[in-house]
User: Fold these one by one.
Assistant:
Number 1:
Amino acid sequence: MMISKNEIKEIRALGQKKFREERGLFVVEGEKLVEEALRSGFDVVAHYRLEDIGAETMGRISQLTHPSPALAVVRRPAPVEPVIDSDELVLALDGVRDPGNLGTILRIADWFGIRQVLASPDTVECYNPKAVQATMGAIFRVRVHYCDLPTSLPAGLPVYGTFLEGDNIYQAPLTRGGILVMGSEADGISPEVAAAVDRKLFIPPFPADAHTSESLNVAVATAICCSEFRRREIL
């Protein structure tokens, strides 16, 4: 299988956000991710396998330090307005800038049956190659809506957020549906978004008076919160 120089150039360009947005495409790499893409219902524009194109060519089109055996170019879904049910748990990410954290959070959302994530404009792009890799396929099942969070949080639903002065999450009342806001590790939840939060939560250390790390990684904190929300549903 031959790939033209222009085709190689186009695939390589998708490593940059500017070209991903211009072309409406992104790249997935690895046997599992390519298989997920092919059965996802997403439009797979092209896919390549190492045995078909050779190690040298795969190395030229790959975004990874060590190229994987498979790579696919996938069309990004068109943006849509989120429709949120009253009993649906939705994540809202405020300024999460690390692609690995974002990808892990989408993987966590997928595990806990959360199908929609709202994200502030300064949250890293979910089609960043590092974010896509970290999702382990969740990118095809969890929809990310980039929006202005302060004006886009749906009315009538409880809005939870994690704060140092919040109520102990293991003791606080939690509802089946609502919006769970997670902020960046560096800055936390912004004041504009915090103003919309009506239920502040805190993940306590153990024991409560112990001298511990200053904070939790945002992906770890998200996993703890999602787990507690889902645990309450089956009690």
Number 2:
Amino acid sequence: MKGEAYRRYFQVLIDELRDKHRPTGIRAALPQNWHSFQSGIAGVSYGSSFALGGRVRAEVYIDFGEADRNEAVFDRLYVQRSEIEASFGGPLEWERLDDRRACRIAAYRAGAIQDADTRLQEIRARAIERLLKLRTVFGSLLQRELRGQDGQPVPSL
């Protein structure tokens, strides 16, 4: 039952992203509490999920397959936190996730899949807005951070 509620919620989110904003070609949602979208950069994705504690998040997820590399990229972004949050238009939660391989930068709000349909519409609209904003803020920034002065990939990352 909960899985079907997630599938319905994310199907509308996916359809709107695909049809109105074009950042995805995904057609079908799965019955799970999260969904991720390719960023165009291998090792980085954008996602939305229902997190623990009655919160919904839009996120940048960094996972190049190696904890050290993920943390190095995260740390380089974290140094620019003030500028990034100013561009984003508000605070973000910077989750290095030292006990895991990946790192996450996210915007949270209150919400649960059991909320009323009108509230879920509000949550979904905000999630879409946040996903698009994260893509705008982090897209070129990540490209730049992953390249050296000569335009070649930075070996230490």
Number 3:
Amino acid sequence: MSASLPFDAVLFDCDGVLVDSEPITNRVLRDMLEELGWVMTLEECMATFVGKAVKDEAPQIEARTGQSLTAEWLASFRERRNEALDRELQVVPGALAAVHAVHAQLGGHIACASGADRIKVELQLAKVGLAPYFQNRIFSGHETPRSKPFPDVYLAAARALGVDPRRCAVVEDTVTGARAGIAAGATVFGYSPGGLSHSSAAALRAVGVAQVFVDMAQLPAVLAGHGSHTLGAAGSA
């Protein structure tokens, strides 16, 4: 445990926590689903798919379109998605400084544990300058037996770092991811700045996150103050 943080490691989700990717990904997804016959707005698409892996939603997509979700379609989706992310992706405000601070305070004991495929996660972290902090510490739910909301990807990350998952903090922004962190036994902090890209503060609290905060720049202080009666209300929602 660091002198300033009451955890042995911090495990970050990627989409919506470190990078503002959801509007980009869901715009591509909406367009491609419309080509299959499922017409919806971007807002409807985000409400349906944020926090979920597209491959895991195959039954719903097939039921709405009447078409099988083939490996070729998924490959085309990922290609078009990655091209859009490479053009447009931005870092979540405050994430660079927050990751730098937490990485320094924990001697590098941080990881990125995402439900997305590894190519996407690595592309995104490299695009926004976060890759050096997560070198050899990236974990994908596509590479575990079960993806979020199951705990597998967080358990894999904790195991690789050599820490007890119960001594880990998890930073998540969706109910699906928060459930995964809680199931792993970690203390989950919910990032909820508002908008369709993230689950609401109320929804995150309802599944048992330890604290909700609205500004990623405040994360180091939120983590340091966990359990303290003196933590200011400015970081909570």
